[in-house]
Amino acid sequence: MAACRAANTGRAAEVADHLLGIEDNLRLLTGLPRADMWPQVRTGAFELVLARLRADAGLLVVDCGFSLESGTGHTGNRNQSTLQVLDQADAIVAVGRPDPVGLARLVRGLHDLAEAVPGCVPTLVINMTRTSLGWREREIDATLRRLTGIVPTTYLPFDQSGLDLAAVSGRTPRDVAPSSPFVTRIEVLARSLVSQVGTPGVLSAATP
User: What region, left, alpha or beta, does residue 170 occupy, with left being phi > 0 and alpha being psi -120 to 50 degrees?
Assistant: First the structure.
């Protein structure tokens, strides 16, 4: 929000001042502290922030909101930032969970994405996979292929302890648990996406 305020008042050069340094080659611009503050992110200012970040970074990754509903009313305007990012993205990553509720939301989200960005074929990632669900990857593949025509590229194992430690310590999973299967799969996915978009580029990750 502060970065958008700076851009909106002609101080786009100050956008970088609001980035948090995570690692030598990783910086973060956090989102809104509360969801109800979205009207303070004006479309024009957000456009300037994206342009500035894209110019300064080798690769820009944007974590989008889940809703893709468009329109001129209250809800449609609320989702404008997400639609704006998807329209500009060089690659889109759709992330879903493997449980029944998560898969149902993912299927709906993929259909919404096809309407919002015609012709888009996202990289599909299934997060929080675990044997306790009793479903094999090939069964999830078959279900998603039948309902959406898309098969997951990556399955990310649920590393509860590693992710908890990362969240509590404010560090990346790679930093706190470099040998974690989750980190290994993430690094393979990241290399694939970077080779897909090249640099500079914009990746959009949307979680239904």
Answer: left
CB-count burial class (<10 Å; 0-12, 13-18, 19+) for 140: buried
Q: List all residues 6 or more positions away from 55 whose beta carbon is below 8 Å from its beta carbon.
A: 200
> What's residue 177's pLDDT?
94
The answer to whether residue 119 is domain-embedded is: yes
Instruction: For residue 145, give the nearest of 113, 116, 107 by alpha carbon.
Output: 107
* Residue that the structure tokens 């101080």 belong to: 11
- Residue 43, domain member (yes or no): no
Task: Identify the H or E element spanning 61.
Answer: strand 59-64
The per-residue pLDDT for range 7-46, each reduced to its tens digit, is 989 998 899 999 999 888 899 999 888 888 888 888 899 9
Domain that holds residue 153: 92-206
pTM for this prediction: 0.88
- State pLDDT tens for residues 80-131: 888 999 998 999 999 999 999 999 999 999 999 999 999 989 999 999 999 9
Query: What is the strand order of the sheet 123-129 is part of?
Result: 59-64, 201-206, 91-96, 123-129, 154-157
User: The CATH number of the domain where 132 resides is what?
Assistant: 3.40.50.300
Q: Is the distance from CB of 68 to CB of 116 less than 8 angstroms?
A: yes
Number of domains in the chain: 1
Q: Is residue 185 part of a domain?
A: yes
Please, which residues bridge with residue 64 across strands? 206
